[in-house]
Every structure is written in C-alpha cells, then in structure tokens.
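RECORD TYPE: inverse folding
INPUT: structure tokens
STRUCTURE:
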C-alpha cells in the first residue's frame, strides 16, 4: 500500500476487501438470523421491521458508491494493462489504445467492424486463420514496400542535390 494514499483511499480499499470476504457474508447472515429470531421478542412490530429495512437500505446506499469506486479503479487498471499489450504488440493497431474515450456511436462502428471479421472467420474452413492478422500483414508489407520506395527516391534526390552543389 502506497504511503501517499489518503484516509478515504485506505478505508475504501479495506472496506472493498472486507465486504467481499466470507467473513462479511457470514456476519451479514448472522445479523439477519438474529433479527429473524428476535421477531417474537418484539412481537414482529413495525419498529422491528423498520430496523432491518433502514439498516439494509443505508448499507446498500453506501455499498453502491464503494462498489463503483472499486469498479472504476479495476477498470482503469485493466485498461492500462490492455493498452500496454496493444502498445507492445507490433501487429496490433495503436488506434485501439484508449478507445474507451470514444463516443458510443464510434464504439458501435468499431463493434460492427469486428463483427464482420468474426463473420468472415465463421465462414472460413480453417479455424486457425485470422483475417485481421492476414489483412494486417498484407497491409504492413504494402506500407513497408511503399516506404522503402519513397525512402530510396528521397535518398536519390539528396544525392542529386549534393552533386549539383
């Protein structure tokens, strides 16, 4: 745990771990059983019912925010890990990094593109072939040849400039 974490950060990390544990579930179960057993003692009064209703409502309300904070943190960590994998893979498109910042419409367009790739893959008799990798490799080879050709032309132009001086 980092020293620069604030009190809320440390508390929310602890609470997230605790509330997701077996101990929390067992504790909550014991509370509900104790509440149920205490019903006859309090003649199943409205106050008796109000205690469990109010308690569970407050806990649920607070847990929504705690769960959302934990989910946001986990989601951010997963996005960073995925971005690292995309950046590290030379055949992966770097345009996919940080697509979570796109609009819903832009994400839908990308989703349609990948659905079409999946359709192509389903039609293919060889389950090991990948249209996206094959297409990407052809595209990369084409770009590489084009770059080398333009680079050679540029080198020739530089040589011609030197000779003319």
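DESIGNED SEQUENCE:
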């Amino acid at each position: 745990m980092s020293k620069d974490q604030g009190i809320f950060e440390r508390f929310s990390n602890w609470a997230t771990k605790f509330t997701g544990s077996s101990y929390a579930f067992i504790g909550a179960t014991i509370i509900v059983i104790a509440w149920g057993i205490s019903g006859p003692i309090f003649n199943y009064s409205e106050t008796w019912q109000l205690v469990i209703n109010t308690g569970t409502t407050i806990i649920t309300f607070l847990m929504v925010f705690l769960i959302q904070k934990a989910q946001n943190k986990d989601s951010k960590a997963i996005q960073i890990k995925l971005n690292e994998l995309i950046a590290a893979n030379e055949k992966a498109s770097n345009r996919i990094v940080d697509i979570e910042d796109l609009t819903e419409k832009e994400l839908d367009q990308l989703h349609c593109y990948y659905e079409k790739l999946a359709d192509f893959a389903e039609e293919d008799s060889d389950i090991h072939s990948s249209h996206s990798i094959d297409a990407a490799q052809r595209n990369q080879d084409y770009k590489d040849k084009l770059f080398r050709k333009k680079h050679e032309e540029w080198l020739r132009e530089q040589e011609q400039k030197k000779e003319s001086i």
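NOTES: The radius of gyration is 30 Å.
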